[in-house]
Design brief:
This protein has 3 helices and 7 strands. It is α/β, with parallel strands linked by helices and 148 residues long.
Length: 148
């Protein structure tokens, strides 16, 4: 397990960028945390660490945003806030996306926790507003090369 306390969005972004650089295709990153915790900011850093441009935005209304760039691992950024069951997940087309060649990033993962694909990197962000965030990462065997 990796734990980090972030005092600002800039610190969260920098930490996430380092995590993103250690990610490999086929990884599912699942976020657990409340509204305003910094999940999209963390995703922006992951994408930057993978070499993708800084165009990450919340997929709340689209369900999924896709990020691609030449020579980079693609990211599929899902928001499961409006998904209510495994059956509803099936109807979104979630299983049709190519996890083996990309990285999945899932906000509100607690809603579909029993359906999350492996290998799984579970990121819990505690805190919101102006308070510091505690970021806990489980599944760190996926980050064997990451040094804190």
């Amino acid at each position: 397990m990796i734990s980090f306390v972030s005092a600002s969005p800039a610190e969260t972004l920098a930490f996430a960028k380092r995590i993103g650089a250690a990610l490999r295709p086929g990884t599912c990153v699942a976020f657990f945390g409340g509204l305003g915790a910094g999940k999209t900011t963390f995703t922006r850093g992951l994408a930057q660490g993978l070499g993708l441009p800084d165009t990450v935005s919340s997929p709340t209304f689209a369900l999924v945003n896709e990020y691609h760039a030449e020579g980079c691992v693609s990211v599929y950024h899902f928001d499961m806030y409006r998904v209510t069951s495994a059956d509803a997940l099936e109807s979104t087309g979630f299983w049709d996306y190519p996890l083996e060649d990309s990285v999945f990033v899932i906000e509100w993962a607690e809603i579909i926790e029993d359906e999350l694909p492996a290998p799984l990197l579970k990121i819990t962000i505690s805190g919101n507003g102006d308070s510091p965030r505690t970021i806990t990462i489980e599944g760190d065997e996926l980050l064997a090369d990451f040094s804190d």
